[in-house]
Amino acid sequence: DWAQLHKGEVLAHGCATLAALGLRHPRAAVHACLDPSDLILLELQLPPLSGRRLQLALQGEVEAMLLDDLQDVALAHGAQAADGTVPVAWLGQQAVLQAQQLLASCGLQLQALHPTPLLLPWQDGQATLQVSG
């Protein structure tokens, strides 16, 4: 499944192979969605921190949970909420490289990988559902 975006607006959408998309839109910048089963997605509780201190605290917390070395994973996090929770996601660097190589082989440029749940609309007190496949 794909969607063509321009300034936050969906111009077109559909379903096609990566090779077909690469032929139709050569060198297109791609923001890819990761399946939640392909990465670790969780929330961590931390004291109020910002900038580099938050990054270091997150790395320390995540490193204690990893089976691999910290430099072998791509680590991303969202903003810290007022209650101290921070959404965190990580994926093996090898998987990131494979995704980048796959897209490049189809003539597409990977700009970013996003955990799919973070792209779904969210409102407090309401359910969000995505059907796929």
Describe the structure.
- With 133 residues, this protein is α+β, with helices and mostly antiparallel strands.
- It contains 4 helices and 7 strands.
- The strands form 3 sheets. The chain has a 3-stranded antiparallel beta sheet. A two-stranded antiparallel sheet has the order 1-2. A two-stranded parallel sheet has the order 3-7.
- The longest helix is centred in the middle third of the chain and has 15 residues.
- The radius of gyration is 17 Å and the shape is globular.
- It starts with a strand and ends in a 14-residue tail after the last helix.
Average of per-residue pLDDT values: 85
Poorly predicted segments: none
Distance between the termini: 10 Å
Q: What portion of residues belong to β-strands?
A: 25-35%
SSE string = EEHEEHEEHEH
Rg, nearest Å: 17 Å
Structural class: alpha+beta
> Going across the major beta sheet, what is the strand order?
4-6-5
